[in-house]
Design goal:
Blueprint (H helix, E strand, L loop, with lengths): L1 E7 L7 E4 H5 L3 H6 L3 E4 L6 E4 L4 E4 L5 H5 L6 E8 L4 E10 L12 E7 L7 E3 L13 E6 L5 E7 L5 E7 L10 E10 L6 E11 L7 E2 L3 E7 L7 E4 L2 E2 L9 E6 L12 E3 L5 E4 L10 E10 L6 E11 L7 E7 L3 E2 L7 E8 L9 E4 L6 E7 L2 E6 L10 E10 L6 E11 L7 E2 L3 E7 L7 E4 L2 E2 L9 E5 L13 E3 L5 E4 L10 E10 L6 E11 L7 E4 L8 E6 L7 E4 L1 E3 L9 E5 L8 E3 L5 E4 L10 E9 L6 E11 L3 H8 L6 H4 L1 H27 L1
Parallel strand pairs: 1-7, 8-14, 16-23, 25-31, 33-40, 42-49
Antiparallel strand pairs: 2-5, 3-6, 4-5, 6-7, 9-12, 10-13, 11-12, 13-14, 15-18, 17-21, 19-22, 20-21, 22-23, 24-26, 26-29, 27-30, 28-29, 30-31, 32-35, 34-38, 36-39, 37-38, 39-40, 41-44, 43-47, 45-48, 46-47, 48-49
Keywords: Calcium, Cell adhesion, Cell membrane, Glycoprotein, Membrane, Repeat, Signal, Transmembrane, Transmembrane helix
Protein name: PCDGM protein
Subcellular location: Cell membrane
């Protein structure tokens, strides 16, 4: 928005200029909260803001003439910047002129000469009085003291300046009055009126009675500002009806009080030909026009002079490149910024005028930003698409300013915008399912497996911590079996594991970042417990108390192959650790009995003798683990007489073949093979489903 105020010059510092809070439509208390600050475009500080009252105050006394010189308007441009949200307001303060300066002539006394043969109507130009005030406070008119021979004439120059001239109304008689004393008074239009005076002394001379005449007396020429030094601007057309020295004219600059000597640095005048040429480089931006006064003086005695007034107006060319001013930049900006978020405030200036000063801003179309025109020569850079720090952590934004001149001139300015991270990415495990193995009876604190996760965010949003969740699948919380290092994701055992109690664990692991709000993901680690040969075989038949023997009777006439009994044992371990073998201890080799290695059947190995004493056998059951564990049982076999039927039955027992004795081994191998194939198939199907 743009605010406009006006204030008279010479007001006391601290005077109120305008009610900013009211004109901006905001509450007074919000000005301090939104960090209202004042930026002067000229670099000088003339104003201040009272945040408590919400008003714009004068910071120093203003002098319109010092600030703007002879410009018809005098405006000071300010910028008000407020944050949360970022807004820019332009303030234009018009400095009003007050009648604080009286007209003043360059010299306190002017001496003029006029020939006695001058005809009525002859004009004597006078110096123009100076009044720094403008408008109605500037010079309004001139007054001349009463005179019998002279009157005052006021002409208006092309730029509006009033030029007084003394006009001869009655023929002069030098013998009667040789010198005339007059007073010229300059009056301004202020209230009250102020004035300045100059004494005018006119000497009446003889001879040369025709002054040089400029045709036309007031003229205007137009030249381009990039005209080369030494180029002819114009040639004055001056005539003098006199002859000889009285008609020989010499030219010289007449220094104007409004621009004392300034144009003499830029233009040269040939004193004999009246040609005016450029003497230095011209600049439209410094001054668009120059008023040149030329005095044409003959060589008569007394000399007479005429005056030519030339106005040189410059034509602007596109010789200034646009200037880009970065007023404000909000960097970094959050990657979740909404569309239309203001990123920067950009101003642009071009010292040229017209189309040469019309500037257009542009940025690359592939960037997620666009330029929005706030008001004349001010733009806002806003977001025009989604931002993603993980794809682009920052942007080099190049703003290009191009004017409408011919040929066009351009300027570009590049600044870096950093994108700040928000927690918009959850951690991600390298694999949602992992498999680990651990030996049973491993010491507490044994490392089982290390999970790893990554987070594309940065800073605290990417700081990860690991924890174990309770999945409810085990009767006892999983945390009583395993723990995890929250920093590196390494899983450790809390206590020794027992394969016979739990063969596999599902350990759900959660990884969580430190963002706000925190994001997380989970993975499952299947921990398989590897069996260890930590259980000795247990004999379940015959069941004999420790330290006792099992008594078994057989027929006294039992033939070889007769089944005496069968030892049945089990092992809590699995796999090779549970494969059992049966054998007699070494001291039983001479006995007439043998034990099947795999089945544990005890049979008669040779014919028994009559009246044979009881036999004592020690059967040892040993597993296939490393190291191997064993158990033993003591049998006492007593031959005794049985009836024939029983004996016959014993003879009819089928004789065990090697194929039958290895049946158990084959069954175990088949079961293990089928189990392994099933596990592999399940793993393949699960991987494809995932």
């Amino acid at each position: 928005a743009q605010l406009r105020y006006s204030v008279p010059e010479d007001r006391e510092p601290g005077s109120s200029v305008g009610d900013l809070a009211k004109d901006l439509g905001v509450e007074v208390w919000s000005l301090a909260a939104r960090k209202l600050r004042l930026v002067s475009e000229g670099g000088q500080r003339h104003f201040q803001v009272d945040l408590a009252a919400g008003v714009l105050l004068l910071d120093s006394r203003l002098d319109r003439e010092a600030l703007c010189g002879q410009s018809p308007t005098c405006s000071l441009h300010l910028q008000l910047v407020m944050e949360n949200p970022l807004q820019l307001h332009r303030v234009e303060v018009d400095v009003l002129d007050v009648n604080d300066n009286a007209p003043q002539f360059p010299k306190p006394e002017v001496v003029l000469e006029i020939t006695e043969v001058a005809n009525p109507g002859t004009r004597l130009p006078l110096e123009v009085a100076e009044d720094p005030d403008m408008g109605s406070n500037s010079i309004s008119t001139y007054e001349l003291s009463p005179s019998e021979h002279f009157a005052l004439s006021i002409n208006v120059r092309g730029d509006g300046v009033k030029m007084p001239e003394i006009v001869l109304e009655k023929a002069l008689d030098r013998e009667r009055v040789a010198v005339h004393h007059l007073t010229l008074t300059a009056l301004d239009g202020g209230n009250p009126v102020k004035s300045g005076t100059v004494k005018v002394t006119i000497h009446v001379l003889d001879a040369n009675d025709n002054p040089p005449v400029c045709d036309p007396p007031i003229s205007t020429v137009y030249v381009k500002e990039n005209m080369l030094v030494g180029t002819l601007v114009t040639k004055l057309n001056v005539t003098d009806l006199d002859e000889g020295p009285n008609g020989d004219v010499e030219y010289s600059f007449k220094i104007s009080n409004n621009a004392p000597g300034k144009f003499t640095k830029l233009f040269s005048l040939d004193p004999r030909t009246g040609e005016i040429r450029t003497k230095g480089p011209l600049d439209y931006e410094e001054s668009s026009a120059y008023e040149i006064a030329v005095r044409a003086r003959d060589k008569g005695s007394p000399a007479m002079e005429g005056h030519c007034h030339l106005r040189v107006e410059l034509i602007d060319v596109n010789d200034n490149s646009p200037e880009i001013v970065l007023t404000s930049l909000s960097s970094p900006v959050l990657e979740d910024a909404t569309l239309g978020t203001v990123i920067a405030l950009i101003g642009v200036k071009d010292s040229d005028s017209g189309d040469n000063g019309q500037v257009h801003l542009q940025i690359a179309t592939e960037l997620p930003f666009k330029l929005v025109s706030s008001f004349k020569e001010h733009f806002s850079l806003v977001t025009n698409g989604p931002l993603d720090r993980e794809k682009a952590s920052g942007y080099n934004i190049t703003v290009r300013a191009v004017d409408s001149g011919s040929p066009q001139r351009a300027t570009q300015k590049t600044f870096y915008l950093r994108i700040a991270d928000v927690n918009d990415n959850a951690p991600n495990f390298s694999s949602p399912f992992d498999t680990a193995h651990v030996q049973e009876n491993a010491l507490p604190g044994t490392s089982v497996f290390s999970v790893s996760a990554s987070d594309p965010d940065e800073g605290s949003n990417a700081k990860l911590s690991y924890s174990i969740l309770h999945n409810g699948m085990q009767d006892v919380p999983i945390s009583t079996y395993f723990r995890i290092d929250q920093d590196n994701g390494t899983i450790y055992t809390v206590r020794a594991l027992d394969y016979e109690q739990d063969k596999v664990f599902q350990v759900p692991v959660e990884v969580k970042d430190a963002g706000s709000p925190a994001l997380s993901s989970t993975a499952v680690v299947h921990v398989f417990v590897l069996d260890e040969n930590d259980n000795a075989p247990t004999i379940v038949y015959p069941s004999v108390p420790k330290g006792s023997a099992f008594h078994q009777t057989i027929p006294a006439l039992a033939e070889p192959g007769y089944l005496v009994t069968k030892i049945v044992a089990i092992d809590a371990d699995s796999g090779h650790n549970a494969w059992l073998s049966y054998q007699l201890q070494e001291d039983a080799e001479a006995l007439p009995f043998q034990v099947e290695r795999r089945s544990g059947e005890i049979r008669v190995a040779q014919t028994l003798r009559e009246s044979e004493d009881p036999h004592r056998l020690v059967v040892e059951v040993r597993d296939n683990g490393t190291p191997s564990l064993s158990a033993s049982v003591v049998l006492v076999i007593s031959p005794e007489e049985n009836n024939v039927q029983d004996f016959s039955k014993s003879l009819d027992l089928p004789k065990s073949s090697p194929k039958d004795t290895n049946l158990t081994l084959y069954l175990i191998i088949s079961l293990v093979s089928i189990s392994l194939v099933s596990c592999v198939m399940f793993a393949v199907v699960a991987a494809r489903c995932l």
